[in-house]
Every structure is written in structure tokens, then in C-alpha cells.
Amino acid sequence: MAENQYNEDSIRSLDWKEHIRLRPGMYIGKLGNGSSAEDGIYILIKEVVDNCIDEFMMGNGKRIDIKLSDNKVSVRDYGRGIPLGKVVDVVSKINTGAKYDSKVFQKSVGLNGVGTKAVNALSSYFMVKSFREGESMTAIFERGVLIKEERGTTDEKNGTYVEYTADTEIFKTHKYIVEYIDNQLWFYVYLNAGLTINFNGNKYFSKNGLLDLLERKTNEEENKYPIIHLKDGDIEIAITHDNHYGEDYYSFVNGQNTTQGGTHVAAFKEALVRTIRDFYGKSFEPTDIRASLVSAISVRIQEPVFESQTKTKLGSTEVSPDGNSLKAEINQFIKSQLDNFLHKNPEIADALLRKIQQSERERKDMAGVRKIARERAKKASVHNKKLRDCRIHFTDEKKENNLETMLFITEGDSASGSITKARDVQTQAVFSLRGKPLNCFGLKKKIVYENEEFNLLQHALNIEESLDDLRYNKVVIATDADVDGMHIRLLILTFFLQFFPDLVRRGHVYILETPLFRVRNKKTTKYCYTDQERFDAIRELGKTAEITRFKGLGEISPDEFGGFIGEEIRLEPVMLTEDSSINKILEYYMGKNTQERQEFIIDNLRLEIDETSEEEEAIIKEKETEAV
Predict the structure, then answer these.
(1) Which of 126-135, 263-272, 480-489 has the lowest mean pLDDT?
(2) At 114, which CATH number?
(3) 157 with 59, same domain?
(4) Partners of residue 130 on adjacent β-strands
(5) Looking at the structure, do residues 104 and 248 belong to the same domain, yes or no?
(6) Are residues 80 and 186 in the same domain?
(7) What letter does residue 505 receive in the DSSP assignment?
(8) 179: exposed, middle or buried (C-beta count within 10 Å: 0-12, 13-18, 19+)?
(9) Per-residue pLDDT tens for 348-405?
(10) What are the helix (H) ranges across 401-475?
């Protein structure tokens, strides 16, 4: 009973760094391992760079230098520099900063004085230097504890330099995926035309803002009309339609990429539909207007209200002190600017009308097929043997772990059985394929409804109309690491890229990495994902270790599988580079050019030689066994 007593000794006060390290999720969202763009290591970079962006927005410094090497990140801006007497306070005292004064930082991203302090507390090493008018101040911390501070003179230009290493006590297993950083830096320059960012030898610069963004994100040959780019004051938009299915939105608030949208995106969608209906004088369905839409919207507002510390969804309803709602401001902007543009550009207006009418015809043609498919899916949902659902979904925004929700797509009952028994029933669901799915490259979307397996998968994800109702944050393809497994993986990716490309573009699709080997002795068991990890395990456990090669997921027992899909899960994100054309990729890999692919494989086939020692080779030959 004494252990459960509630008295004065039960009350504990944490200082700022203890609280951040004990509850990092409150400050940077989920920790993750670097496989997702929302993982903590990228939020740390963003928190530091955001301060540099705010300096640029206030007209101070047009260049930011960023380096990443051996897990050490450094960021240098050329703004005014932190006032020297406040350097330590700014990075180590909560609610300390200049951004509470709207006269200094009119429309800043970070307003609560937490960001850089979180980076400091969650870093094993953190250094900040400020340069102002020939003087400098340096402060060095370890896990938020001040180790050294030094004032001196300098020849450096004014500005601030931050260098840190993410603490492996907090981020236990992590790796940086440079493509995520690359994508974020491009967004920074699109939203801040004239800013130059240098990152590991690469230069990022944009002259035309959101116009450049859409030119980079779309293929000019596939666009139905030239990109419409409108900007006035604190609102900027870019719009076009292409051939892809669904809707694609890039949204920003004060330069922050709001990946989960918010009030500004909802207002934009509504205003777009209303304006187009009024312009053409026809009551088009909203889905016909927005089908195949690719757009970007940026707003700058004072004191934005976000729904989380990571600022991925805007909750603000006010845009200015005079009480004008954000919705009203955006509606007025679209109504006047877009309407004027379409009147002045009749060729683009005609092309837009043809695209809407095409979407309308396609929707009506598919109405009957959809109705039958929905009835079939509704019946299947009662006794859907393919789906083992979880209790929490991505749409449950009020639940903290909704970002951890994932759907494993597996091949066959054997693999799905192991994952189903080992999974976390709160956040992990399983969808079982019955074999190799159809190669749907070049087929119309009608096949999604006519093919029972595709229809049930679409129904499980709940992405028929758009990604707004996606039920799982991560869609994980879990197939065997053999030829058949790779083929199934390609067929599933073809399905997503052909009909739901936004699912991939927005970073929701992953490949599950599972161990290839198990090395164990009587005391220790190690699971190895590469040959090198296997060799390291053999060295550590000795020559008597037993080596097992896993051929399929079904061979791994549920007890073992639990360790591979828990906290230490290894996921490889499926990413599209900026210059990727989905049609060209699918045409080459999944089209009918069999001979061309065969010649490519033959010409590029190479033998990888294992650089193993004679001792290791002898051990492997003597001890390796295969799981049957």
C-alpha cells in the first residue's frame, strides 16, 4: 500500500531540459528512426532553419549554409545574430525569444520560444555562436547542460551558427534520408523567393515561388494548360490539372509546409469550386472540378494557431486584427484574382472547362461500376478475411498515436498469420493478398472496382475520393525477400502509382525490411539484415554460433516477428525524385518492352564479391543452415 501513497513526496518539478527529454513528443512530435519525413531528426533541423528563415523574412541575410556529416548538423545564417548577452537564454530558457513582439517578427513560424531549446535538450552536443559587429559569443551544451560560454572578437559576418548532434539516448536507431531534407529545403526557397540555401554542396534557389514549385512537381507535357500563378499580398496560389488520379495539394503557412492541411486548404477548395461554378455558370460537382488538380497555396498570417508543436496543420480562423476570417480572405482572393485571370486568358479557360467536362464524363461512365463495387465491399467488410483492422486510425486526430497507424500488405496466409499474431492491435492492421495481383499498368480506373482484391484494398485504405480520409498513416508492403516477393512488391507499387500516386508523393508508402539471417548461441540471439551484420554477429558470438537464413516471412515465428515490427521496425520509404515521371517509370518497368528490359539487365549485370575473410567463409560454410 505504501507504494501507492499520494503525498508531498509524489510531487516532482522538472526543469526545462528534463521535461523535454522525458516528453519529447510534446515538442517535436514522434521520434521515429528517420524513415518518415515527420520523424524527430528532421524536425530538429527544421526548428533551427526556421529561425534563419524568420531573419530572411525580416530582410536580414539572403543566404543559409547547412551541412550534414557523420550525424552532425550545422546551420549558418547571415542575419543580425542573437544579441550577445542573451545567447545562452535564447537556447536554454523556455519562453525566451524575440518573436513575442510582432513588431520584430511580423509573420513568423515559431512563436512559442520552444524550438531551439528542444534541439539543445535532445542533442548530446549543441553549440551556438552569434556574430554581431565584430564581436562573438559562443555557448556549448551537452544534453541541455551548459558546459562552456566564451565571448570574444571575430572577423565573421553578422549572423548565427548552430551545430549539434542528435542524442542517441533519445534517437536510439536513426539515419538521415537526404531526400527528405532536400525536399524541405526546396519548399523553403519556393516560399522565400530570393533566398539561397547551400546544403552539402548543392544550391537551392527560386525566383518565381510557387510557380517554380508546380513546374518542378508536374510534367509540362501532361499538364492540361499552363500553370496559373496568382499572388497578392500575403496569399499566393498556383494551379493546374494533369492526368493523374486524385487531388494534390502543397500548402504553407508563413513558410511552414502544412502537410496535413488545415483551415487555409479547406477554404481554398471551397473558394475554387465556387469561383469556377460562377465563371462558367454551371453547377459542376466539386469532385469533377478538383479531379487531377495539382495546386499550391501559401498564406502569411500573424500569430498562426497550429494544432501541434510540429505545425503540420493550421487551426487559425483569423487572418488579421480587424476580424476578417481566413476563409473570407482566401475566398475574396480566389474570386477576384482567378476570375480576372480566366477572363483575360480564354484559351486557358477553355482548356480548364474541357478538363472538368472530361472528369464529369468519366465519373458518370463509372457510376454503375462503382455502385456494384461498393455493395460488394460493404458485404465483404462484414466478413472481410483479407483485413485484420486495428483500433486507432490516422483520421483519429485527437489520439496522440494516430501517426503510428500502419497497414501491412502481405502475400499469403502464412506471412499474414505471423504478422497478425505479433502486431500491435491498437495501431497495426494487416491486409492479406491471395497471390500476385494484376499488373494494372495502362488500365483505366474502372479496373479498381472490377478487380475484387483492388477494390477491397481501396476500401480498406478509404482513399476512393481523396487522401483526406486515409485510415493509416503508413502503408507498408511486407513481401518475401525473393524474386516472387519483389515481383508482388512491384505490382502493388504499380497499383498505387497508377491510380493513387499522391499516396506515394505524400510519403505514406513503405517497404518493410525483415532480417535475412538469425545468428545465435545459447545466450544471445542476433537478427541480421545484411551480410555485414551477419559477419559482425559471427565475430561477436563466435564460431559455434548457429546461422539461419530466412527465406520467407512465414518462416519467422510470431514471437520473433514482434521484434521486427515494434519500436525497432525498419521501414524503407518509397520516394519519387523531383524529376520522376510516373508514366515513364511504369512504362519502362511494367510495360510491354520486355526485350529492352532484358537487354538492360544483361548490360548492367555485375557480380558483387563479398570481401569476407577466409575465416568467415569457413565459418559460414561449416555452420550455415537454412530454415525450412
Answers:
(1) 480-489
(2) 3.30.565.10
(3) yes
(4) 137, 160
(5) no
(6) yes
(7) H
(8) middle
(9) 999 999 999 999 988 888 777 777 766 665 655 545 568 899 999 998 877 878 888 9
(10) 412-422, 446-450, 452-461
Residue 548 counted as domain residue: no
The number of folded domains in the chain is 3
One domain, residues 103 and 219: no
Q: Residue 154 belongs to what domain range?
A: 17-204
- Say yes or no: 465 and 504 in one domain: yes
CA–CA dist 376, 238 (Å, integer): 39
- The owner of cell 501491412 is 408
Distance CA 18, CA 482 (A): 46
Cα-Cα-Cα-Cα dihedral sign, residues 497, 503, 505, 507: negative
The 10 Å CB-count burial string (b at 16+, else e) for 533-559 is bbbebbeebeeebebbebebbbbbeee
Question: What's the CA gap between 494 and 265, in Å, rounded?
Answer: 29
- pTM for the full model? 0.78
The cell numbers describing 95, all together, are 519562453
Q: Choose among 318, 338, 148: nearest CA to 229.
A: 338
**Do 74 and 199 touch, CB atoms closer than 8 A?**
no
Give, for 613, the enclosing helix (H) or strand (E): none
Residues 95 and 128 both lie in one domain: yes
pLDDT tens by residue, 488-524: 988 999 999 888 888 888 889 999 988 888 888 888 8
> Considering 204, 239, 259, which residue would you say is the last residue of a domain?
204
Q: Which of 365, 381, 397 is the last residue of a domain?
A: 365
Rounded CA separation 125/379 (Å): 57
Handedness of CA 515, 520, 526, 530 (dihedral sign): negative
Q: Does position 585 have pLDDT exceeding 70, yes or no?
A: yes
Q: According to the model, what pLDDT value does residue 245 have? A: 77
Do 176 and 297 belong to one domain?
A: no
Q: In Å, what is the CA distance from 274 to each residue of 249, 503, 626?
A: 18, 27, 64
Instruction: Classify residue 507: in a domain, yes or no.
Output: yes
Q: Please check whether residue 251 is in contact with residue 257, taking contact to mean a CB–CB distance below 8 angstroms.
A: yes
Neighbour-count burial of 181, counting CB atoms closer than 10 A to its CB (0-12 exposed, 13-18 middle, 19+ buried): buried
